[in-house]
């Protein structure tokens, strides 16, 4: 009967072998159900691929003038040229490289700092916890952009300094998150059982507790990644970030800071603007889907 | 009287906590979780520990395995006083004292395979080499009645009873002599409870284990225990052989507990029996004298003023003024 109505019998649809599934297989299966996230991941992948290929295959140097100034998009220059006479498409994708590099490195640094401080703070408690959390509070309560500006002024602005500055500013959120989950994990019976079994603190912290904090950390880092890309764009936009002639999404927008360009040469500012939006939105979609996919309580 | 020396001796164990104060500048009160508890556990014996929720029985268990430090009093294991030892001195003894937890799910790391859960303590204490650890894991699984195929699976793939078996296997991994079973069957279906209790009893004969079996269901505790201690508000009010305790309960609280247990016989009228009035008193300001006097139908002036000591009557110990 079923077969006739649905065209396909229920038995023909293979049920997922949930029982024998590895954790990451489960996560991937659930992740795939998120349409927006899949769009996001494809978007990021396409942008990455273009960022790799375009500067490599392009006949133009992103930082060299071609002596064709402010030309509208054409076959030779699909996104036109800028006021200095550089090919905008080549610049755009080398800017994506720089922006992603800044985002990933800054996220990496802040994750390492945040995770280590969070683990120590949550696990050992007492005055260590007190000290680390107060430092965290101080950094969080600082007007963030001001802190970055001061840092950028003290250590000359530049690619690596931007990475370090953003990396050292973004960790408090991760530290708090990790501390919170360590505090609750420390009270679980499997940690108590390890204690009773006489396991060392290092074993308990890194082999029992840390693997259980991976999911929240990973989810949080996606939003840190998106934020770092935005922060880099903002800093470069006000001239405190990546310095010319190196292209970044922020300083490309910075070049479009006047009314004539905004109204008559949209090819100079629409592509980097759209690229920032695409990257940030796509990464946030991925983060959202990860949150659902990695939550052990969210059913199948 | 028993001539044997006890495997584990608990002497005047006290555990107090600071009570959270409700008002801003209020002096924090003290919670008397465990108040002067003394008992012995002999080799191959199961001591049952019963009492209502919050009477301090789990706290006693946690102190025996070193999860909490006693405020005062001693835990003496094979002549070593555990409470005075530091971490390093504890290490060789630590594995002798293990624990099985109530909730089999939260007691197994959700991110680890069963194999890794069982192998980790053995590798850490060098009970096994990395080469032969798998054989030992198989042995442990067989010992608790689990198939070898369980090794490559995660805790969430098992039922409550199976997880409890794995929890028992994990406790056995380090070759303990003594296991605290903290309500190991309270979260399970009745049919599964019996299986786990039988498993624990089998393991006891096979491996010569001693248990402290903490529970609140009288029937399960009676089933597995050789002797039973009854706790009320942090104090032991009666200890006796399991049969003896049920046949001749002396302390009014023990009597009430046994009377309150449901009887699976529709013809027996349990409504006429004495049930307890009132609430368990506060652990912050425990009642003076006998802790039980506000609820005791036989309380006298002496009960309200003087705290009764455990007195021994041929192995049946009771803390009540009425029997002296």
Protein architecture, described:
- The complex is a heterodimer of chains A (300) and B (324).
- By secondary structure, chain A is an all-alpha fold.
- In chain A, 70% of the residues lie in helices and 0% in strands.
- By secondary structure, chain B is of the alpha/beta class.
- In chain B, a hairpin with a 2-residue loop joins strand 4 and strand 5 (80-81).
- The longest helix of chain B is centred in the middle third of the chain and has 18 residues, at 190-207.
- The mean pLDDT of chain B is 87.
State the oligomer.
heterodimer
Question: Total number of β-strand segments of chain B?
Answer: 12
DSSP helix fraction of chain B: 25-40%
Please report the distance between the alpha carbons of the first and last residues of chain A. Answer: 28 Å
Coarse structural class of chain B: alpha/beta
The largest interface is: A-B, 22 and 34 residues
Strands of chain A, count: 0
- Our Rg estimate of chain B from Cα atoms comes to 21 Å
List low-pLDDT spans of chain A.
1-19
Overall geometry of chain A comes to: elongated
Return the structural class of chain A: mainly alpha
Number of helices of chain A: 13
Helical percent range of chain A?
over 70%
Sheet with the most strands: spatial strand order of chain B: 6-7-8-3-9-10-12-11
Q: State the distance separating the first and last CA atoms of chain B.
A: 20 Å
Mean pLDDT of chain B: 87
Low-pLDDT residue intervals, each spanning 5 or more residues of chain B: none
Anisotropy-based shape of chain B = globular
């Amino acid at each position: 009967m079923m077969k006739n109505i649905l065209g396909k019998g229920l038995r023909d649809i293979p049920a997922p072998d949930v029982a024998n599934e590895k954790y990451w297989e489960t996560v991937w299966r659930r992740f795939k159900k998120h349409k927006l996230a899949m769009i996001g991941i494809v978007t990021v992948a396409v942008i990455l691929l273009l960022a790799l290929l375009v500067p490599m295959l392009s006949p133009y140097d992103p930082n060299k003038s071609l002596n064709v100034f402010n030309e509208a998009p054409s076959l030779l220059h699909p996104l036109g040229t800028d006021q200095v006479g550089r090919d905008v498409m080549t610049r755009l994708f080398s800017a994506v490289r720089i922006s992603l590099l800044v985002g990933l490195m800054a996220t990496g640094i802040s994750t390492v700092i945040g995770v280590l401080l969070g683990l120590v703070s949550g696990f050992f408690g007492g005055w260590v916890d007190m000290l680390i959390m107060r430092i965290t509070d101080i950094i969080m309560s600082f007007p963030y952009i001001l802190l970055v500006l001061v840092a950028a002024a003290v250590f000359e602005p530049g690619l690596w300094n931007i990475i370090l500055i953003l990396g050292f500013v973004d960790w408090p959120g991760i530290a708090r998150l990790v501390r919170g989950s360590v505090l609750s994990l420390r009270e679980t019976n499997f940690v108590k059982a390890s204690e009773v079994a006489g396991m060392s603190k290092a074993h308990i912290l890194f082999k029992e507790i840390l693997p259980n904090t991976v999911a929240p950390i990973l989810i949080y880092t996606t939003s840190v990644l998106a934020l770092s890309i935005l922060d880099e764009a903002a800093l470069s936009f006000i001239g405190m970030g990546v310095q010319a002639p190196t292209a970044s999404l922020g300083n490309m927008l910075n070049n479009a800071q006047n009314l004539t360009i905004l109204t008559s040469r949209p090819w100079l500012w629409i592509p980097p603007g759209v690229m920032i939006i695409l990257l940030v939105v796509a990464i946030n979609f991925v983060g959202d889907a990860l949150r659902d996919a990695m939550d052990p309580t969210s059913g199948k | 009287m028993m001539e044997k020396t006890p495997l584990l001796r608990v002497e005047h164990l006290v555990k107090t906590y600071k009570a959270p104060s409700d008002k801003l500048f209020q002096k924090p009160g003290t919670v008397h979780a465990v108040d002067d508890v003394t008992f012995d556990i002999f080799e191959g014996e199961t001591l049952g520990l019963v009492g209502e929720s919050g009477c301090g029985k789990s706290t006693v268990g946690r102190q025996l395995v070193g999860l909490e430090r006693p405020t005062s009093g001693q835990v003496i294991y094979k002549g070593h006083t555990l409470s005075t030892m530091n971490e390093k001195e504890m290490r060789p003894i630590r594995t002798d004292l293990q624990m099985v937890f109530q909730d089999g799910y939260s007691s197994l790391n959700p991110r680890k395979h069963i194999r890794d859960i069982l192998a980790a303590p053995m590798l850490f204490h060098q009970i096994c080499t990395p080469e032969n650890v798998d054989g030992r894991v198989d042995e442990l699984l067989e010992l608790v009645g689990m198939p070898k195929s369980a090794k490559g699976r995660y805790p969430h793939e098992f039922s409550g009873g199976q997880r409890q078996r794995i929890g028992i296997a994990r406790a056995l991994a380090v070759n303990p002599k003594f296991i605290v079973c903290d309500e190991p069957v309270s979260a399970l279906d009745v049919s599964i409870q019996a299986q786990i209790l039988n498993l624990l009893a089998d393991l006891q004969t096979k491996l010569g284990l001693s248990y402290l079996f903490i529970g609140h269901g009288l029937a399960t505790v009676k089933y597995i225990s050789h002797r039973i201690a009854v706790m009320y508000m942090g104090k032991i009010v009666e200890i006796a052989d399991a049969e003896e305790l049920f046949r001749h309960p002396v302390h009014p609280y023990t009597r009430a507990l046994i009377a309150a247990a449901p009887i699976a016989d529709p013809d027996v009228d349990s409504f006429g029996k004495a049930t307890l009035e009132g609430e368990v008193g506060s652990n912050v300001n425990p009642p003076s004298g006998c802790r039980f006097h506000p609820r005791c139908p036989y309380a006298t002036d002496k009960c309200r003023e003087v705290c009764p000591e455990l007195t021994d009557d041929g192995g049946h110990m009771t803390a009540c003024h009425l029997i002296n």
